[in-house]
Amino acid sequence: MIRPAVDTLQQCLGDADESTRSEAMLALRELCKHHAELFVPIADDLRGVLDDDNTWIRERALIVLGEIAAGRPEAIDPPFDDFEACLADDVPNVRSKAILRLGSIAETYPDADRLSIDDFRACLDDDSWTVCSSATTALASLAETHPETVRPVIDDILELLSPSVEFIGSGPGGEQIHIMLALGRLGVTYPREAPRIVSVLQRIFDEDPWVRMEATEALLAIDAVDPEAATAAEGICALLLADDESTEAIERFVAAKPAVRALVITELRSRVGDMDSVDEKPTVAAAFRTISTIDDAYLHLS
Questions:
Q1: 292: which of 29, 32, 178, 269 is 20 to 30 A away, CA to CA?
Q2: CB–CB of 171/203 below 8 Å?
Q3: How far is CA 45 from the centre of its chain?
Q4: Gene3D superfamilies annotated for this entry (predicted)?
Q5: What is the reported pTM?
């Protein structure tokens, strides 16, 4: 039943109407999530869509072709050349998707000799911070399977945050957040580089609470959080998670250093993800409500 639908959508990729091509690409994207094996015959069609006039279609074609390569690597030629060509696209989001997919298939084909670290290094120097952050994310993943390949570009990654720079798009989607989380992963992969990475992360406690929290997440990944700050945060969390709401908890939270507040919020957020018992939910929810009136906490908890 699915094969005929794929064939029909395949034909629609060549339709003269942009919206038809776009809807076909969207449908193919959804089907490919669960049936990547059915898409091997249309891999060449997807390669052709990578130069479509519609930016959104090009992005989705990159994603679907990457998923086919990951799901059935033995069935198609690795699309290294296709993704590398997309790195020259005029649209940053397309370049961003291309470098992410290039890193992904490099992991899928661990013995491939087509991997060029120069592609990633060039993206770290891209005019778009979206592309820079995507390259950093891809490298952090790639380092787990190709540590010696990625090691030479660690300096380039650290340079992105040294000295501090103005980033486009502050807040939860800000590029600096992705770079910091990637640095945390790199600190785990390369323990000898951890001190330098920690030094950079510890300087990133600016006015944006999201930035502070994600820097803390990265430091936690490397197990490099200041012990005194951790102790202070544990005390505040204990008060916040007590059965009765505590004025002292709020006062201590407000008076705490940014690094301590970031640790408190990080701990509460992790509690939400780790909760096994329904009985624990009201307690955590109450803790959220207790500090939700504090501006920088509200950004994390709303």
A1: 178
A2: no
A3: 28
A4: Leucine-rich Repeat Variant
A5: 0.76
